[in-house]
Write a structure and sequence with these properties.
120 residues; 4 strands; 38% helix; disordered C terminus
Length: 120
């Protein structure tokens, strides 16, 4: 499945379209990753599909100004629709950037650099 930024944005527009897109995506890929980074803090996301629990979102966040930086890790189990709503509504310090933008950037860059295939 060739994934691009336009496919991602179009899929986000409807519950059914996103469910179809993300199901196909995880059929061919092991995980979806994204990150948001500022001079003061960072957020790293890894999303995987769990056939029994839906999507598993692992979030690592940390403040860069503490010495040493203190990371915080959280794992959430979400339905596909809950994940879509998170993507549509999550805002960052830079209010012009959304969680959808974070994943969109990762999808539009060189796939082998950021998206692990199931067979890796």
């Amino acid at each position: 499945m060739s994934v691009n930024n336009e496919d991602w944005k179009a899929a986000l527009q409807s519950k059914e379209g996103f469910e179809e897109f993300i199901t196909k995506y995880f059929h061919e890929h092991k995980e979806l990753t994204g990150n948001y980074d500022t001079p003061s803090y960072y957020e790293y996301y890894t999303v995987t599909l769990d056939s029994k629990k839906g999507l598993v979102v692992t979030l690592k966040t940390g403040l860069k100004q503490s010495n040493p930086p203190l990371p915080f890790k959280d794992i959430e189990h979400l339905s596909i629709e809950e994940f879509r709503q998170l993507i549509l509504n999550k805002k960052f310090e830079d209010q012009s950037e959304t969680l959808g933008d974070v994943f969109s950037k990762m999808l539009s860059e060189e796939p082998s650099a950021h998206i692990k295939k199931k067979d890796e």
